[in-house]
Amino acid sequence: MKTNVCMCSEQTERGREQTHREMMQTVQEMKKRLPSEKRSRSKASTVEALNYALKCVKQVQANSEYYNLLMSSGLEERREATVCTLEDLEGITSEHTLKNTDTFVVVFSLASGKVVYASEQASSVLHCKRKFLESAKFVELLYHQDVNVFYSHTAQLQLPPWNVGTDSAAVLFECAQVKSFFCRIRGGKDRDGEMRYSPFRITPYLLKVQGLSGEEEPCCLALAERIISGYEAPRIPMDKRIFSTTHSPGCVFLEVDDRAVPLLGYLPQDLIGTSVLTCLHPDDRLLMLAMHRKILKYAGQPPFEHSPIRFRCQNGDYITLDSSWSSFINPWSRKVAFIIGRHKVRTGPLNEDVFAARSKAEQPIMCEDIKELQAMIYKLFLQVRTSFISKLLAGQFFKSDSKGIYNLHSQLQGKKSISHNSDFISHKCKFIS
Q1: Residue range of the domain that includes 400
Q2: Model confidence over 282-310: pLDDT tens digits?
Q3: Mean pLDDT, range 374-390, rounded to an integer
Q4: Are residues 221 and 271 in the same domain?
Q5: How far apart are CA 64 and CA 71, in angstroms?
């Protein structure tokens, strides 16, 4: 009897030790994934790692609940979706995926999020078994920082319907890039056993899948194309290595051109909302102060070129950019609303794979020098451009066509910020005429 009790206590103790080891391994894994800006010191603490993990879990749960709410509200409004069987999907997608080795098709339920179909090529592209894909939730395959982007682009109410009548899936894929977005999808592990994520351009469509029971389920068909570095074969030609950005007077990215992804290694969501200065070479940051002074001096004027700048790619290497800059002035506040940068790559990175993992020592940090410089630039734009009103009254921001109809200068056309002030514009047009 005593022997049995001892054996049970030993097994219990071994179980506790095993659980403790697994828990510590998990904590160490979370510490590795803690972003540098979330750390209070160079080495992440257990509390910081656990708090960050809990925040990520809550974010995913909140997004999932919001997503399900959107799905349920749109069920009755989207009846035009094409109905397909699994056999239909196999035939529709095979033509495109066979010709493009870096693409695959996945269909997941908009109600449960589970994958109901994955093309044959998906398992080879993602380095996993097809059975695993067809039993998983698609969102679980995504990098956690891309979940927000995924949910915002796959709400049922804004998904375009899949058109089976299109001549070929390839043509449909090429014509739908404007609806696409970027996400990182996991695909195997690296040499150190770390989970590896690859960037994909995803184009979503709405359709209904008819199951074996005959019931129709609303689903999202996602065409996924892996993004390859623009400096690796097949390389993007030198004259095509261009992209554009916009940032606020406070040097925060507002928009990033899709063309920047294979050239910089960042997805748009990686840069939007972050400081421009953190991506620049430390020796080039002061150039931005001079550039913004020139922006303020020539606000609203045609683009001007400035000194080349070195921009850090996602892998930690720098590229040299030749840039031209311009700005848009809010006509009612008379201040610069945002700055537009048009960039061309002069020299590429040493490591041509811009999507390669960056070492932990190279992670960008928002240091005090950057904060001070950013504050200096922002203060430049707090001043009101009093000369703007005089230019406006002098007619410099208006031009007339052959019929005598006055319009705002091209820099103001198409901006929502002036739509509600049409009465003022009409009054100004009468004043000029």
Answers
A1: 389-432
A2: 999 999 999 999 998 888 789 999 999 99
A3: 70
A4: no
A5: 10
